[in-house]
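Appendix B, example 12.
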Amino acid sequence: MLEIRNLEAGYGPINVLWDVSLSIAEGRVTTIIGPNGAGKTTLLRAIVGLLQPRKGEILFRDRPIHGMAPWHLLEAGIAMIPEGRMIFRDMTVEDNLILGAFPKARRAGVARNLERAYTLFPRLRERRRQLAGTLSGGEGQMLAMARGLMSEPQLLLIDEPSLGLAPVIVNELFEIIADLKAEGRTIVLVEQNTHKAVGVADEVYLMLSGKVAWSAPARDVDLAVLHDLYFSR
């Protein structure tokens, strides 16, 4: 579904990604792990058009998308759930969700997708009239995930969903990701919790210093070996 070929990207004069190539298969969960500063978030930003590549190609369903604006990529079927939630704190939970259905083709299905979001995340139904800024960290992450699903994306990018959350909430969020996987959704998951990330994945990529250092099917991953690579032991 998504092909990234020899990608280089960065910020100002600083290059972060170096000759990154990877493949995302349809209907599967691809996990990208690595330490802070490895380039994981930069890669997602390049995919959704928030960062323009300096070199290389990004192909979505065999169509080049590098250089496209983020809103056009959302309309094409790519949605991102950003690190740190990035919800609109002064708007209600429901208004945040409705904003997720921004693409014109999705507006007619707002009521259906709201009901779907409230079924996946029952606590959001209870808090639908609350300001998003009053939610707990876990509830805010649930809102960010539900908002990302409102556009009915063909490809869903999830950046560090467990960041700063209690273990019980992390378990709940990964159960939801597993449910989305069972539905056949195509997901790219960036995560530092290697046990959880590998457990839900079909394919695993390890990034170090802006490069893909290693990859394998999740079923073949030995966590001890992965951790040795992760920490460069």
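The mean pLDDT is 93. Residues 2-230 form a domain with the Rossmann fold fold (CATH 3.40.50.300).
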